[in-house]
Design brief:
By secondary structure, the protein is an all-alpha fold. The protein has helices at residues 6-10, 16-31, 46-56, 64-104, 111-117, 133-169. The protein has six helices and no strands.
Length: 170
């Protein structure tokens, strides 16, 4: 396009009045430092560059309908993002729950099959299956409690013996 004409711009804008307003606003934006959207040729004025942008369809007025449509699209996009985030969060929670359930599950073996095979696998509290994590923790805690009570009783016996030895020396 060697030369920009009003007819070129009117293809993109409805009437001459709105074309003049749009060109004026865009020219002011370019003069205040906005980057041109088209290839800037040396020697062209800001008005010519703004008219080239209008003819290319890169700049146009937004009507109330356009603004309302954009707001609706933005709201729909935000709602879709929120729904997606909630869905991903629920999937993550389900995966965590399933993972915990899988870790907690242990294969159960009948008492009769254990007796027949002669294996000496530890049994859980109800006598069926292998010992689960909860049972192991309970056994570990009870063993630790027994060991600490044994240590306390042996220490008290030692102190009693020491007291009796000291008493006999006087």
């Amino acid at each position: 396009m060697a030369r920009i004409t009003v007819e070129d711009c009117l293809e993109k804008e409805q009437n001459r009045f709105s074309l003049v307003q749009l060109a004026s606003k865009r020219t002011k934006q370019i003069l205040t430092g906005a980057k041109p959207l088209v290839d800037v040729r040396r020697g062209n004025k800001a008005v010519v560059n703004s008219l080239r942008e209008i003819a290319a369809g890169l700049v146009r007025f937004k009507t109330e309908e356009d603004l309302a449509r954009e707001r609706e699209e933005e709201e729909k996009r935000l709602q879709a993002e929120l729904a997606l985030a909630a869905e991903q969060e629920s999937i993550a929670e389900e995966n965590i729950f399933i993972t915990k359930a899988v870790v907690a599950e242990t294969p159960s073996i009948d008492e009769s099959s254990v007796e027949e095979s002669g294996d000496s696998e530890p049994m859980n509290e109800d006598g069926a299956g292998t010992v689960g994590e909860d049972s192991v923790e309970a056994v570990t805690e009870s063993v630790a409690t027994e060991e600490s009570s044994e240590e306390e009783s042996s220490e008290s016996e030692k102190s009693t013996q020491a007291n009796s030895i000291e008493g006999s020396q006087f």
